[in-house]
Amino acid sequence: DATPETINGRVEDYHPGTYKRDTEKLSWLPNDGFEEVMGEIVFVGTGYDLAECIRHFLKETGNDDLSINEVLFAEHRKYVRMGCDVFLSHQQRFPIGVTLKNIRKGMYWHGASFDDCDDDVF
Length: 122
Fold this sequence. Notes:
Elements: E1 3-7, E2 10-14, E3 34-37, E4 40-43, H1 47-60, H2 68-74, H3 96-110, H4 117-120
Antiparallel strand pairs: 1-2, 3-4
């Protein structure tokens, strides 16, 4: 079930998801993705996991000929627009949270927030 969480000062719905790492398909990864974090066993996905999850979503929604950005753009999502102003280089083997943290750090040092991303950051 979805539970409300506060993200960037706003209450957002959070869903823990249903993704399970296919350890045969992603056999080069060292484990099933579950780790102990602050005394709790949680899934710590990598960029590879995110890519697999996105591919599955695109296939299930009949959009496997599109990218996730094309789908979000077609849905008129607030933070998706044509063109790019930023390039983020990353390694997919790291937890996706590390990549997201680095994006937030870049935004902090740039003096931006998700609310003012339209022309400045993305």
